[in-house]
Sequence to fold (86 residues):
Amino acid sequence: MYYNTYSVYPCASNDRIVALCSNSYPDDNIEFKELHIFDWSGKLLSVLHVPRWVSMFTVDFSEKKLYAMNLKKENKIYYADISCYL
Fold:
């Protein structure tokens, strides 16, 4: 069985909502993160697979950049250009 969980507050602009999704397969003890981008009607527009564990994120919609970090393991902020998804 497969589960989706939205675990932190989403970021939103006038036309997009970005949410961090924890997907898991409990029987296999596997979990991975994705960012889901929705329009305001709730339609899923894009799914971004996140290569690192993320516990906190924000989006700069004017610069079209994602900023993320893992509060438990690293003292680093990662960023990515997500202009093709917004």
Observations:
- The mean pLDDT is 84.
- The first strand starts at residue 3 and ends at 6.
- The two ends are 31 Å apart (CA to CA).
- Residues 3-81 form one domain.
